[in-house]
Structures are given as structure tokens and as C-alpha cells.
Design goal:
This protein is an alpha/beta fold. It contains six helices and six strands, in the order βαβααβαβααββ.
């Protein structure tokens, strides 16, 4: 797998997902380990500065990107009904295997039914 991708996991991302990415060899920082009180814009700026793809369950990042027209290294937004962590891991692994090259510089929406890649 392309371990060149680096991730920043938002406070609302489950630790199991963070642990899974570490196990797969990815460089990932989990916000609760750094500062769980950061606001969305601060988290976004860290991801930008460190060229990390942001993992989140928070739709507000779409607002930051598209309304404020800010450039991002990439964002993966989980839209899983019931917030099933195992389902999220399964979908993320699938995307990392089959679309690794499309994650960077995209707003990726992961849902059970489909995965959307919106260029930024």
C-alpha cells in the first residue's frame, strides 16, 4: 500500500480507525492525542501545514473548503449511518487499496452505497 499518504484524524474519528491506519503503516496523528479542544479551522490549518489528509465525521469541513474556497491536502468525510466503525474501516481500506492516488487533493465522501471524489 502507498504509505506516502499522511493523515490527521479529527476528534470525532474513532481510535480503532487510527489504530488500523497505524497498523497498515500510515503516518497518522490523532487530534485527541495532541489537543482535543482545537476548533475546526485550527485542525484544518494543521492538516494544510503538514500536508496531511484530514479524516472526519464532520460535514463542517465541506463548508470550510467549498464556501471559503480554501485549498486542502485532502479530506475524507465518513457518512456511515449508525457510525459503524467496522464499516468505516472496511470502506477506508477499500479506498486506500483501489483509489490511493485519488485521495490527495480531493474531498472524498465515504458512504456504504458509494464513494465520491470531489476535486479541490
Amino acid at each position: 500500500m502507498g504509505t506516502y499518504l499522511k493523515f490527521l484524524a479529527d476528534v470525532n474519528i474513532e481510535k480503532l480507525i487510527v489504530d488500523e491506519l497505524k497498523t497498515l503503516g500510515y503516518d497518522i496523528i490523532w487530534i485527541p492525542d495532541e489537543n482535543p479542544y482545537l476548533d475546526d479551522m485550527s485542525i484544518f490549518k494543521i492538516a494544510q501545514k503538514e500536508n496531511r489528509i484530514l479524516l472526519t465525521n464532520d460535514k463542517d469541513f465541506g463548508e470550510i473548503i467549498f464556501r471559503q474556497k480554501l485549498i486542502s491536502s485532502g479530506i475524507v468525510l465518513f457518512r456511515i449511518k449508525g457510525q459503524d466503525t467496522r464499516e468505516k474501516i472496511k470502506l477506508l481500506r477499500k479506498v486506500l487499496i483501489s483509489h490511493n492516488d485519488r485521495i490527495s487533493k480531493h474531498f472524498v465522501v465515504l458512504a456504504k452505497e458509494k464513494v465520491r471524489f470531489i476535486p479541490m
